[in-house]
């Protein structure tokens, strides 16, 4: 399986389909790492490690893709935006967003949006086991609601075998999402790039693909992320 995945990665690379080739390279590396762990023959281990080193070099490109979401644009729900980066090898996710806060702010539904993001991770095809959230405390009376909402999300995720680790920072500013397969997505507005729905029974209230967006920029990067064996 690893050899076929690597062969596919090389073909995609040659066709200048860099985003797809990076995914295949990463999957091939992960499969070879599993073989190394299961192999007791030191000579074979050495050959596999050499191959992993070669693949890591090939996959360590300076990849950058930018998506511009226009004001009032639709069709940018989380699954559409993230699905191609959520391969089966994704088991750990980091979310840094200072505004995962109250649900009743005039234009922000950040806690609900974070919940929707978690629902997407639970559905797969990735096999997420751990989600790390770094955000900031809500100011004033909203803090207790923020805390209780996040704890409810944490408890609900645990029912699906997913651990949510929550940390707070008073100085956090940047917004980014990282997956342990090497993909990093930076969204100018974080997870809160949707406009407020017109009402609880309006189209787009439940389906984010139909919800108008606020103007923002999405930058996608790939970084080398392989485990040492």
Automatic annotation (TrEMBL):
One of its GO terms (cellular component) is midbody. Residues 2-55 form the MIT domain. Residues 75-222 form the MITD1 C-terminal phospholipase D-like domain. Signal peptide: none annotated. One of its GO terms (biological process) is midbody abscission. InterPro entries: MIT_dom (IPR007330), MIT_dom_sf (IPR036181), MIT_domain_contain_protein1 (IPR052817), MITD1_C (IPR032341), MITD1_C_sf (IPR038113). This is MITD1 protein. The gene is Mitd1.
């Amino acid at each position: 399986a690893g050899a076929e995945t690597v062969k596919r990665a090389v073909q995609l690379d040659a066709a200048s389909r860099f985003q797809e080739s990076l995914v295949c390279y990463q999957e091939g590396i992960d499969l070879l790492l599993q073989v190394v762990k299961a192999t007791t023959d030191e000579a074979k281990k050495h050959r596999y490690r050499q191959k992993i080193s070669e693949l890591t070099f090939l996959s360590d490109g300076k990849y950058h893709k930018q998506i511009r979401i226009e004001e009032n644009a639709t069709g940018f729900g989380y699954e559409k935006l993230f699905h191609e980066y959520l391969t089966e090898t994704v088991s750990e996710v980091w979310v840094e967003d200072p505004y995962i806060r109250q649900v009743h702010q005039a234009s922000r539904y950040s806690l609900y949006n974070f919940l929707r993001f978690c629902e997407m991770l639970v559905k797969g095809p990735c096999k997420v086991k751990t989600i790390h959230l770094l955000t900031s405390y809500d100011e004033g009376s909203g803090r207790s609601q923020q805390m209780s909402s996040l704890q409810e999300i944490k408890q609900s995720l645990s029912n699906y075998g997913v651990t949510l680790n929550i940390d707070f920072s008073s100085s956090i500013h940047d917004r980014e999402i990282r997956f342990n397969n090497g993909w990093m997505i930076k969204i100018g507005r974080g997870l809160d790039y949707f406009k407020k729905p017109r009402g609880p029974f309006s189209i787009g209230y439940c389906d984010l693909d139909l919800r108008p967006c606020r103007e923002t920029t999405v930058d996608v990067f790939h970084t080398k992320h392989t485990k040492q064996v």
